[in-house]
Amino acid sequence: MPRALRVYRLPIGFHDAYVAAPTQKAAIEAWGSDKDVFQRGQAELVTDAELTKEPLENPGKVIKRLRGTAAEQIAALGETPAPASKRSAPRRKPGPSSGGRTGPRRSPGNDNEKPSPPARAKAPPKPKPRPSRANLDEAEQALAEAEARHQAAVKDLREREAALARERKALEKEQDKERERLEARREKAQAAYEAALRRWRES
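RESULT FIELD:
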């Protein structure tokens, strides 16, 4: 028995790509995407009847739908900041004892002292990976397959019940015909017997 179709969704640019496929692997092949899009939480199962209607009518075909309005997409991009005007750094006037030289003054006897290196900025913490939906998708797929088997079994039982009902109707019809034929034969035989009995009594 072929596997029941399920609808999966993968965001691609400003669109959501829907595809009706029997397995996650078949959906990935239809998208032409990486095999771990489900593990990364990028692709997901869709159960909304309105969203799954068109993909289920076109199994294996990728159906793209625009995500949000054009205004919402432009707003999602954010405003581009205007370039800051370039300003010249103010020149430091030489101090009275600097002799016209700029820059930090060195203390006497510290000519060989090296400047301390700038402190390194702390790297931002890595974002935690999104929890995997693999177990949930597997459980949902098992449930969908079980429901498909149950529906097929009920359909088969109903077909057999209908066939038995037709067979019973045909049998009852045949039995009625046979009963009518035998009753007519019995009535004819009874009439002949009663006539013979009267003649016997009169003799």
